[in-house]
Amino acid sequence: KTELLIVDKNVDNLDTYPQIAQAATFLKENEVVAFPTETVYGLGGNAKSDEAVLKIFEAKGRPSDNPLIIHISKKELLNEFVKEIPETASLLMEKFWPGPLTIIFQKKDGVLSDVATAGLETVAVRMPEHPLALALIDVAGLPIAAPSANRSGRPSPTTAMHVWEDLNGRVSAVVDGGPTGIGVESTVLDCTAEIPQILRPGGVTKEQIEAVIGEVKVDPALTNLKASPKSPGMKYTHYAPDAPLFLVKGSRDFIQQLIAEKKHEGLKVGVLTTEENGDFYEADAVQVCGQRTQLETVATALYDSLRSFNKSDVDIIYGEMFPNEGVGHAIMNRLMKAAGHKIVEES
Ligand code: TXA
Ligand code: MG
User: Fold this and answer.
1) Is residue 238 predicted with pLDDT exceeding 90?
2) What H or E segment, with its residue span, contains residue 244?
3) C-beta of 116 in contact with ligand 1 (< 6 A)
4) 253 CA distance to ligand 2 centroid (A)?
5) Cα(264) to centroid of ligand 2, in Å?
6) Predicted confidence band of residue 264 (pLDDT cuts 50, 70, 90)
7) Is 193 a pocket residue for ligand 1 (Cβ < 6 Å)?
8) Region 39-49: what's the mean pLDDT?
9) Which residues surround ligand 2, an ion (CB under 5 A)?
10) How do 144-145 and 42-46 pair as beta strands?
11) Do residues 268 and 314 lie in contact, with contact meaning Cβ atoms separated by under 8 Å?
């Protein structure tokens, strides 16, 4: 029932490619289609249609109070559905669009589906930096609402296979354009406030944003668990593998000791590590996730690593931690959510 449309993202004239035309036709008919972006795969639908957007929520099993990001292929389209473009947003669009930065604007009424924006007066918008995504949005000629193409609560998909695992039979098509590059979702930045605020850390770092517009704030709820997050999606459990994940603040010897204790109790133990320590651990499943010295590689591999633990059928997972800066900010944010904030500390 779900069509798999395979497209080589490097071919010329993507906008006349039959698979893209087919996917665009689905979008115009208010059907939903998964497609790759530079961050993760998205599940797209016509952002002007309640019918299409409801299909997205339904396919994902997503709570209806969690608004979607609207994807566009041309900056000019923005004026159709946002009230104003603040100076800060303008500078950031110039620098980072297309790219993994989502900006929140005041919404113009009556253009987009209110279901897509969960009834809010603001709207989140981004222009993805992926030839396939841009061609598809362009050919459809519509603003495209697209959350990550996973079932709610699961790690976001970075390959068409991940999407297939979660959504086969639930969507009209999956456009397979190979693995995504960045691996964690876009940064969500609220530009409606005097001082812009990061609501979700992601592909563009705080440091990179500050280099363009000066000081930005970070939603306190990202570090203080008692505060309620301004981005509705950040309050839900997310990204979690089936087995409980514990992050470990401590040496690798300490981590190996934890693994040994659990194995002794008869449990199957997984460990999430990087190339530097891959050979060190003796566990039932050792997932090597990029190189610690190059955090971008960790981001790229993160969700696939989390998903892989489900295949090895482990009972418990220990994970190394990462520095909370640069793209490490996004990595730690996702890991903390995947772990339900469970941390084991070496005394
Ligand atoms: O990289 C990405 O952003 C991917 C790809 C597919 O583009 N999309 C993505 O969408 O991650 P999703 O739906 O999984 O996450 C969107 C986040 C949620 O946390 C949501 O609550 C927040 O953006 N959001 C959307 N509209 C908002 C608004 N008006 N105000 C505050 N947060 C908003
Ligand atoms: Mg998501």
Assistant:
1) no
2) none
3) no
4) 34
5) 37
6) very high
7) no
8) 98
9) 148
10) antiparallel
11) yes
CA distance 318 to 263: 12
**CB-based contacts of 279, cutoff 8 Å, min separation 6:** none
Q: Is 233 in the pocket of ligand 1 (CB under 6 A)?
A: yes
Please report how many Cα atoms fall inside a 13 Å half-sphere around the Cα of residue 120, on the Cβ side.
21
pLDDT on residue 231: 82
Say if residue 148 carries a ligand binding annotation. Answer: yes
Q: Which helix (H) or strand (E) holds 187?
A: strand 187-190
Pocket flag, ligand 1, residue 192 (CB < 6 Å): no
Q: What is the ipTM of this complex?
A: 0.99
67 lines ligand 1 (CB under 6 A): yes
Name the residue at shortest CA distance from atom 31 of ligand 1.
231
Q: Ligand nearest 102 Cα, by number? A: 1
Other Cβ atoms within 10 Å of 84 Cβ, number = 10
What pLDDT, on a 0 to 100 scale, did the predictor assign at position 64?
93
Please tell me the residue having the least CA distance from ligand 1 atom 19.
233
Q: Is the full-model pTM beyond 0.95?
A: yes
CA distance 185 to 126: 11
Q: What pLDDT digit, counting tens, does each position of 58-74 carry?
A: 999 999 999 999 999 99
Residue 325 clears pLDDT 80, i.e. is over it = yes
What span, in angstroms and rounded, lies between the C-alpha atoms of 41 and 244? 25
